[in-house]
Design brief:
- With 221 residues, the protein is an alpha/beta fold.
- The protein is built from 10 helices and 5 strands.
- Strands 3-2-1-4-5 form a 5-stranded parallel sheet, with helices on both faces.
- The protein is globular and about 50 Å long.
């Protein structure tokens, strides 16, 4: 029987993964990571609301040392890149060393201890173009690792790996998922800044899908 963990940031991709996989893969536990990112407080709050909505257990993992060992725009004083004109430079600016590898290995430990069969992550085609730890090949490499590093041998699932943000928003709308609960912004403060890379990706996808209701709710547009 399936029994799954999801990496839940509270953003678009993790919401849609949860909505798609909740029943088929029996998602029971969501892990949200606080590594000192500027948006940690609102990510945790959004993830908690999504867990309440879907009726699953929520656990917050603190990784204070990760912020201490690195310098990037997500965790430090560097200004967050705005817009989508230079995705490679933006990816470099917000790169957190081995973040997804670390997150998946922590989830792997939970899976090994409690016999979870799957670990779900919101990697997708659009972000895979600039973030190598969002690729299908990366997920496959972790699956190979788990064959040796765990007894439970959980499988990493990437249900959105062939989808871009337009596709992901379309799925959310078709399945009537609670997009109003999403928090995708990289910056501090409440709500969405509307300027950072993550906000721009979400905003563009909402516009392209004619989702005026959520543009108003999330970006006041």
């Amino acid at each position: 029987m399936n029994k799954s963990i999801i990496l839940l940031s509270g953003g678009l991709d993790s919401l849609v993964c949860l909505g798609l996989c909740k029943e088929e893969y029996n998602v029971e536990l969501a892990l949200t990571f606080n590594y000192g990112q500027k948006s940690a407080e609102k990510e945790i709050a959004a993830a908690a609301e999504l867990c309440k909505y879907y009726g699953i257990t929520h656990k917050i993992i603190k990784l204070d040392w990760l912020k201490e060992m690195t310098h990037n725009a997500l965790t430090g004083n560097n200004e967050l890149p705005h817009g989508l004109d230079n995705p490679e430079a933006s990816a470099k600016a917000v790169w957190v060393p081995n973040r997804n590898g670390l997150f998946l290995n922590i989830a792997g430990a939970f899976a090994d201890a409690e016999n979870y069969t799957h670990i779900i992550i919101g990697a997708n085609k659009e972000e895979a173009a600039t973030f190598p730890d969002n690729t299908k090949e990366f997920a496959e490499s972790i699956n190979t690792e788990f064959q040796y590093s765990t007894q439970a041998k959980p499988q990493v699932l990437v249900p959105l790996i062939n989808y871009d943000k337009n596709d992901i928003v379309r799925l959310a709308l078709e399945k009537e998922m609670p997009l109003e609960l999403v928090q995708s912004c990289y910056d501090t403060g409440s709500g969405h800044c509307g300027k950072c890379e993550s906000c721009c990706r979400l905003k563009n996808a909402l516009k392209n899908n004619g989702a005026a209701k959520y543009l108003k709710q999330l970006f006041n547009e």
